[in-house]
């Protein structure tokens, strides 16, 4: 029987460790997840984990990066369903906060993530998110769909608002009720970006 190429084996090993760790982090949480348990369930050794991810913390970072990529794909699809660019942007922001009540995202990304990895504002994934938001706001501004804002500054402010709204929901004892309040506030915040109607518009 022909052996698999080394590159293919590396990809498979990483995928097995990620899947096993993701299941453990999502069900029992980071603190109670045993490295021996999820390496064993993946049919691998601790040595494989250390080689590919460094340690348990590195594995959590990789799992969060994987989930973040999936969240981004979902948000792109939400945006694509909108009737115009502005509505797509609003729907995307709201959908991001709504994900905070999903058990896996809530536990791994919003509860254990900040507890283990620190402030989400400093995560590498946050920088790519801000760049994407900056590009969208630039297009909306240039089209006249929103006020003449400074795109990067506004992207950072909105990103912070969305992140903290999600953390509020995730840590709430009444997440559904908190989510409704957060979504209402986010919509009001975004409405503030819309151009003010001119005097002529008011009297027309």
Automatic annotation (TrEMBL):
Matching InterPro entries: Homeodomain-like_sf, HTH-type_TetR-like_transc_reg, HTH_TetR, Rv0078-like_C
Pfam families associated with the record: TetR_C_41 (PF21351), TetR_N (PF00440)
All residue ranges annotated as the HTH tetR-type domain in the record: 11-71
PROSITE patterns, alphabetized: HTH_TETR_2
Origin superkingdom: Bacteria
UniProt-listed Gene3D superfamilies: Tetracycline Repressor, domain 2
Ranges annotated as DNA-binding: 34-53
Alphabetically ordered keywords of this record: DNA-binding
Protein name listed in UniProt: AcrR family transcriptional regulator
